[in-house]
């Protein structure tokens, strides 16, 4: 069975533009092939705690030595990793906040990037262990940032996903959403055209 891991990271939960675009893409995939199984995480509604010393220590402590609190924390992180490991396709809804990805999405990456599990170190450098997967990023921005120094998202997401072994990454952009009604309509229409192209490929 093919699996989709759908991650939304908008502060507005399902009402965010990136969430709406990601949801539309997943829904249309299911219309074409109902055999997809979807796991959906809405990080705006149910945020993952940011990584701190307590959480990192819990994850790195050997299982037999963990306290009850540490076991709970480690199990949460293990669940996030298992969801990615089991997925064939990742669909990420990503708004831009202050030129960066939402902090809740950064926290998700911090919890799934684990040496020896999702990547490993070698004499030649790190090797991602989540190979054979695809990712589609639905990115929404209030301004125009693609190809500009202010777009820190694209390189970060491509680098982070590649670090984990996911090199097949497609980006769909809805830009200029806050530049007036006409610009917003044009941005949404352009994003929907890009989604159509992905579905037709």
TrEMBL record:
Binds 1 FMN per subunit. The keyword Transport does not apply. FMN binds at residues 10, 96-99, 140-143. One of its GO terms (molecular function) is oxidoreductase activity, acting on NAD(P)H, quinone or similar compound as acceptor. It comes from the Bacteria. It catalyses: N,N-dimethyl-1,4-phenylenediamine + anthranilate + 2 NAD(+) = 2-(4-dimethylaminophenyl)diazenylbenzoate + 2 NADH + 2 H(+); 2 a quinone + NADH + H(+) = 2 a 1,4-benzosemiquinone + NAD(+). This is FMN dependent NADH:quinone oxidoreductase. It comes from Thiorhodococcus drewsii AZ1. The gene is azoR.
């Amino acid at each position: 069975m093919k699996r989709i891991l759908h991650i939304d990271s908008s502060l507005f939960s399902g009402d965010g533009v990136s969430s709406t675009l990601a949801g539309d893409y997943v829904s249309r995939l299911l219309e074409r092939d109902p055999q997809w199984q979807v796991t959906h995480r809405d990080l705006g509604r149910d945020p993952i705690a940011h990584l701190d010393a307590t959480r990192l220590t819990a994850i790195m402590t050997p299982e037999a030595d963990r306290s009850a609190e540490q076991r709970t924390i480690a199990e949460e992180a293990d669940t996030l990793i298992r969801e990615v490991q089991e997925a064939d396709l990742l669909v990420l809804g990503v708004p831009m906040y202050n030129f960066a990805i939402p902090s809740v999405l950064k926290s998700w990456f911090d919890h799934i990037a684990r040496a020896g599990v999702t990547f490993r170190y070698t004499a030649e450098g790190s090797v991602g262990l989540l190979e054979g997967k695809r990712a589609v990023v639905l990115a929404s921005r209030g301004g125009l940032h693609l190809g500009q120094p202010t777009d820190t998202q694209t390189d970060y997401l491509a680098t982070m996903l590649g670090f984990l072994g996911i090199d097949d990454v497609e980006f769909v952009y809805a830009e200029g959403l806050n530049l007036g009604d006409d610009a917003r309509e044009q941005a949404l229409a352009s994003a929907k055209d890009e989604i159509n192209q992905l579905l037709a490929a």
